[in-house]
């Protein structure tokens, strides 16, 4: 259903007006309450979509209020016009549409009033508000469908576009590798030094910072040997659930609607009377046996998905069988228990070492906190990081390191500095020592004591790299010359296979490649594919290889346009998309005309107060 047309870039008509209307369309107004409700609903939709809280400041930064406003203006404009044309959304249409929404169905696949109200409540909408909005949507839909019915069928345009997009071509390609061009003149020292002078900027050391990190954690000061047997036993009892595999039930689930308790009881009665389970399932539901299998579930799994009463009914069974019907907000449920897996406890002697370390770390938390307080006091007195680390017996590391973790002395930084590299590198030399808590209950102290800007690397250090670069450049240039010679010979009529054999070049005859398939074919790189569609049949062209280490000589052998008759499904899809695009263009123009006819005025001051009430104070 097309519900709004707000995001198509219709220009805004802003003005500063008084009153409590956020926007006025003709003789109708959208007030603060309506806008704020729509804005809140959009934020909840975004939070559900992205799985995170989005506050109004964040939403305003990406233009959400303006999108919501434009949507409201669009809907109201079309509503006003549709009403003026005598269009209406009937009660029957509203009821039929609601009953067709899958989210409002119960487990039996039919409309469920409770599910309907629950879904609307979660969206922050009352049934009355939803039905009014739906009625307006249906009214707008009639208007849009009238435009759809009148849209021109763009057969001529579609055929031309299809033939162009689906044109296919094939070529023969010679590949000349820079590594296979034979001997070249090696660069002299004078040439290397000249290249160095030109490319000095490429041969710089990274910026370095001399950083220091000190840290302490419960694990580093824990003393597991001091944990007593009594503490170990108490800890085991308190954490027993951690060392226990819960009891499981291998279950199938049959569900009925919230008002179908009698059906659920009849289902159980027929099974208990001796009828085969699969027969009753097929007779009373639309499900197959493999569609109701949930597999192994614990008591907490069922409790979380349904409720405690349902879970208790399932786990009341001491052997495979049917549970009594139990009710949740989703309906009435019958579980068939197919198997029972008893709980398994890991004995204390198997987990003693792990548990002893955990208890020791918990006991060390207070000691770590006390050390952090002492560290803060020493910082306040002006003590340096190394002094603090020495006095408090902290792990202390110092190194001169780049942002990427490269040591000035060579190698890659490890240990505490590596763990906190991004944080410590963000510090400046004149900033105070940073004290940061860590997730494990410890803390880290970080400091920058010196900064070393990028330095010019000496010629002697980079001459080998310069030599490799110059050799590669000369090999590539020679490959280009060789490719041009092959291209000229090919244009002169020499057989391409003979040229390939004589030059030692790789030869490839491509399959048919479509214009829309450029970049999707594994045969040729996109740059070669695009070149093929710029050439005339019989033309020969030279292009740099996509790998960068050679050239290719391309001869276009043949081409053929796309054929709508042989690719009917793809052609129909294109025809449909063109029709939709043309309809969208028409709707944009239609709405623009409506806005011009009705007149749209936005109260910018009031809008800003609603969007950012704190900033308006």
TrEMBL record:
Transmembrane segments: none annotated. It comes from the Bacteria. Pfam families: Rotamase_2, SurA_N_3. It is found in: Cell inner membrane. Residues 246-339 form the PpiC domain. GO terms for cellular component: plasma membrane. SUPFAM superfamilies: FKBP-like, Triger factor/SurA peptide-binding domain-like. GO terms for molecular function: peptidyl-prolyl cis-trans isomerase activity. It is a single-pass type II membrane protein. Keywords: Cell inner membrane, Cell membrane, Chaperone, Isomerase, Membrane, Rotamase, Transmembrane, Transmembrane helix. InterPro entries: PPIase_dom_sf, PPIase_PpiC, PpiD_chaperone, Trigger_fact/SurA_dom_sf. Belongs to the PpiD chaperone family. This is Parvulin-like PPIase. It comes from Iodidimonas gelatinilytica.
């Amino acid at each position: 259903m097309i519900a709004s047309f707000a995001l198509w870039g219709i220009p805004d008509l802003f003005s500063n007006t008084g009153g409590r209307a956020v926007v006025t369309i003709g003789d109708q107004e959208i007030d603060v309450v309506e806008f704020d409700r729509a804005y809140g609903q959009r934020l909840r939709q975004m939070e559900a979509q992205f799985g995170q809280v989005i506050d109004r400041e964040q939403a305003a930064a990406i233009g959400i209020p303006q999108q919501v406003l434009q949507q409201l203006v669009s809907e109201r404009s079309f509503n006003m016009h549709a009403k003026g044309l005598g269009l209406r959304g009937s009660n029957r249409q509203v009821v039929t549409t609601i009953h067709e929404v899958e989210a409002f169905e119960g487990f039996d696949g039919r409309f469920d009033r409770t599910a309907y109200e629950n879904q609307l409540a979660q969206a922050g909408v009352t049934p009355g508000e939803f039905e009014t909005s739906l009625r307006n949507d249906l009214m707008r839909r009639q208007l849009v469908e009238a435009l759809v019915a009148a849209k021109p069928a763009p057969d001529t345009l579609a055929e031309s576009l299809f033939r162009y997009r689906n044109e296919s071509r094939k070529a023969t390609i010679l590949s000349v590798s820079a590594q296979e061009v034979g001997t070249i003149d090696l660069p002299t020292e004078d040439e290397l030094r000249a290249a160095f002078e030109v490319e000095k900027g490429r041969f710089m050391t990274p910026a370095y910072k001399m950083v220091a990190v000190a840290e302490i954690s419960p694990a580093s000061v824990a003393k597991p040997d001091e944990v007593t047997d009594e503490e170990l036993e108490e800890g085991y009892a308190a954490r027993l659930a951690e060392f226990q595999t819960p009891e499981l039930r291998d279950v199938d689930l049959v569900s009925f609607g919230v008002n179908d308790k009698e059906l659920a009881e009849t289902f159980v009665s027929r099974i208990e009377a001796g009828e085969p389970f699969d027969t009753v399932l097929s007779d009373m539901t639309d499900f197959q046996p493999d569609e109701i299998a949930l597999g192994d579930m614990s008591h907490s799994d069922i409790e979380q998905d349904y409720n405690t009463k349902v879970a208790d009914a399932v786990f009341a069974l001491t052997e495979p069988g049917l549970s009594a019907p139990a009710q949740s907000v989703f309906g009435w449920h019958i579980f068939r228990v197919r198997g029972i897996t008893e709980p398994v406890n890991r004995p204390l002697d198997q987990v003693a070492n792990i548990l002893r370390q955990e208890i020791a770390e918990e006991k060390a938390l207070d000691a770590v906190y006390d050390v952090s307080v002492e560290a803060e006091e020493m910082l306040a007195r002006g003590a340096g990081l190394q002094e603090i680390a020495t006095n408090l017996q902290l792990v202390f590391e110092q190194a001169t390191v780049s942002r990427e973790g490269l040591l000035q002395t060579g190698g890659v930084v490890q240990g505490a500095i590596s763990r906190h590299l991004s944080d410590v590198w963000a510090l400046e030399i004149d900033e105070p020592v940073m004290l940061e808590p860590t997730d494990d209950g410890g803390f880290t102290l970080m400091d920058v004591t010196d900064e070393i800007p990028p330095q010019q690397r000496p010629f002697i250090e980079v001459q080998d790299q310069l030599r490799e670069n110059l050799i590669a450049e000369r090999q590539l240039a020679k490959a280009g010359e060789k490719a041009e010679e092959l291209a000229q010979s090919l244009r002169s009529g020499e057989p391409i296979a003979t040229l390939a054999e004589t030059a030692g070049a790789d030869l490839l005859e491509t399959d048919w490649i479509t214009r829309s398939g450029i970049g999707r074919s594994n045969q040729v790189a996109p740059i070669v594919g695009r070149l093929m569609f710029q050439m005339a049949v019989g033309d020969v062209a030279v292009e740099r290889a996509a790998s960068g280490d050679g050239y290719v000589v391309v001869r276009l052998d043949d081409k053929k346009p796309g054929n709508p008759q042989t690719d009917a499904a793809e052609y129909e899809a294109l025809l449909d998309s063109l029709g939709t695009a043309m309809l969208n263009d028409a709707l944009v123009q239609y709405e623009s005309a409506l806005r011009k006819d009705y007149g749209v005025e936005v109260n910018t001051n009031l809008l800003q107060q609603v969007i950012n009430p704190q900033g308006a104070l």
